[in-house]
Amino acid sequence: MWNPLILQLVAATFITLPADTPDELDTKIVHALDFSRQQFIRTVNSSGDSLLYFRASGPAGEWSTVPTEDWTSGFFPGCLWKTYEWCEEKLFRSAAERWTAGLESQKFNNRTHDIGFMTFCSFGNGYRLTGNSHYKEVLLQAAQTLATRFNPKIGCIKSWESGKEWAYPVIIDNMMNLELLFWASKNGGPAPLREIALSHAQKTMNTHVRSDGGTYHVVDYDTATGEITKKQTHQGYSDESVWARGQAWAVYGFTMTFRETGEARFLATARKVADFFVDRLPPDGVPYWDFYAPGIPDVQRDASAAAIASSALIELSTLETDAPRQAKYLSAARRILATLCSPAYLAEGTGSAGILNHAVGNMPRNGEVDVSLIYADYYFLDAMLRFRGLQSYRAGE
Ligand code: GLY
Asked: pLDDT band at residue 391, thresholds of 50, 70 and 90?
């Protein structure tokens, strides 16, 4: 039996400590957010009147830029919106509005599933933070455009255009674009948008997720029969390996799908893909670019996969009903964020114009290896703001 005096002492310790104890990670995150703000001010100011969409930066400090049709075009405006959310400075709102407006034509882009990334990170954040009704119209149109890529026979949205390699490719990344459809179905869009998102998520759960929780990158289908013709990789080490960013997209995508549906099958899948990711991380929490890359531990890490997964794991920890799992996911997210905020990854004091160093775009094609990538920065901001949201909630603010 516990002595009542000891119980009182224990209770007093727990009652007075948590709210007042400064959280070291929170301090690091505030520092990283402030560094991000300074970096983006530099990029916006050096842009003058031009409206370029930034994608990657190396030690020389130059951003590479992309056309508005590129899958990454929404992330720079998305970073500006998230920084505005953090600092509430007018400069960021004006810049975010300008870079967002420049993407409006993409609402009719029916040649890629990436319209979700492009419009939801830009117009989606803009609508969430300002309530601008025009942004809502753009998003509803974009969702309808995305839905034109759905084939009911296959039950999925086509990711990339058909070519020599694939007839009807569906990639694990595509889970991320379902958020636009869920949002649209709740905000005045046609109800079938939700059915399309559900069908795609269910099919992806069955076809891309392996029994151990690892994921395939690309699944290709025969459009005549609806049957799977191959399961492959495009950006990972091999068809049967697990590309780290693909796995991070799966953790984020299935967690988001569980948030939107409350269905147990999606929580089970989110847990499965999250456990695969978390259980195979190196001690500092930043994955190697592929979980089965030959030469581990002497191979490149991928900060983009770490950033995406840290944000997803924070959200999963808030939705999780099982206490030990909740603790596991939050603890993994904290470990990843602590490393990303450290000098080993934060671009502070290095030449890069971005926020995080050491991200990998496409290792097999030697594209954008060990650089800053705008989508790594976007999901890093996403994770840090989510983490701060948790802190405010806990402090009762
Ligand atoms: N589909 C984009 C990427 O993760 O590279």
From this structure: low
